[in-house]
Predict the structure.
Amino acid sequence: MTSILPPWIVLDPHLIQWLQEDIGRGDRSTQGLPNIDRVATAVWIAKESGIVAALPVAKRVFELLNPQAKFQPVAAEGSPCILGQPIAEITADLATLLMGERTALNLAMRLSGIATATRKYVECIADLPTQLVDTRKTTPGLRLLEKYATTVGGGVNHRVGLDDAVMIKDNHIAAAGGITEAIEGSRRTMPYPLTIEVETESLEQVTEAIDCDADIIMLDNMPPDLMRQAVAIIRSANPRIKIEASGNITLTTIRQVAETGVDYISTSAPITRSHWLDLSMRIQP
């Protein structure tokens, strides 16, 4: 999946808010420094190995502070880095460098950590047709960027929000009184051309979802043997239906799940369980 950032008109308000959160009424540490208007160059250095992500976002952070700031990536977006490797060079006045440092680094470290974790999951199933998909378990305010980082790592985005698709989960089924009732209700109200995905936990629910002509059937928390049976039933009944597996996906289990023949495996782990990739900034003499 190609990694495409949302347009700046969407991201800029977030970036400005995060800069304002950090700067507050002014950078007290920077304001008293001599020659604060002096133009200097800073280098970003990787302090561990991983996958680089969010360099365009970091660039934009510095540009919002100073349109004349020059941010030059040294490593490519989505490329691996190793300990001690230069990642980027930023040339701007010292005030811009110091005020933008923490916000830009925080975003790059967080998103690079997600890209790094995603790449590990993707590599486990790289020789299989199954694709890794993210979820809506994201940090409030960071969803667009965290999902972008997933694609940098080689994953595929699931729906971004509740308005992207109809996804009928266990609580929807319970509230509606069954899969059939939930799907029929959704079809009466959803706009064209949204798709319908249904979460299932048993072969009986799988059969009901097939009978209701669901577009995607999720096999939730099924053991591999049961999942293989469900895949065979769906493929035989309607090859058009896409199949997604979900629930307790780990680096240890993901390949076994992919080998059942599902089209997608969704997991929140690369976002919710990733650690930040350690990066640092050094102003050059």
Summary: The radius of gyration is 23 Å. The mean pLDDT is 97. The first helix runs from residue 8 to 23. The chain has eleven helices and twelve strands.
